[in-house]
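Checklist before submission:
- one chain only
- standard amino acids only
- sequence pasted in full

Submission:
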Amino acid sequence: MMQVMATSDSKTTANPKRDALAARLTAHFAPQVAELGLELLQLRLLGARGAMRLDVRVDRQPGQGAVRLNDCRRVSRLLSTQLDAFEAEDNRDLTIDGAYELEVSSPGMDRILRHEADFQRFLGMTAKVIARKDGVQEAVTGVLERCANGELALNLGKKKPLKLVALGDIVQANLAPTFAEWLALGEKLKAESALLGEAETVEAADLADEELNEAEDVTID
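Returned file contents:
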């Protein structure tokens, strides 16, 4: 059963059953979100049964400008319609037990980076990368210098040598931009949207944390 509730950040903890459901939902919805011209970046189930939050992050393809509120609304309606149908049909593989809230939003400042194309897209921006090699896990924050042939190079500054990380060793990577980098990205997305002839361009920095309490919960970070 979906509920629209005020949103708040939730720390995720390991829950194999919940995470397996999230993986199945991701596999089911990713192609349909792609048909809307968007990328399903992340789909997570957070919280405990009866008080879960389905946190969905979407992005536009490179060169297509910023995610707009209407993009989030379309994805929210797609998911909510089918999730209600799964519950009515008693589809146990794709049904979320108990009450939950659905939140669809733009990637936000901590946009997840998964593929080589993601790293190449955001070269010159700061990112936090967690990698594991030979059983040892290390977290590194630096500027994305280059990414090619399955290897990422991070500039750690202060005349330090570039930190080289094999993409296959990366456990998790997210953007961690400085304020100047974030503003520059917002201006770039604004310019792309203008070239596409889109009115009401979304400026990410101006709309951070906005929530719309409508039939669905959609946000632009």
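Reviewer check: The CA atoms of residues 13 and 40 lie 22 Å apart.
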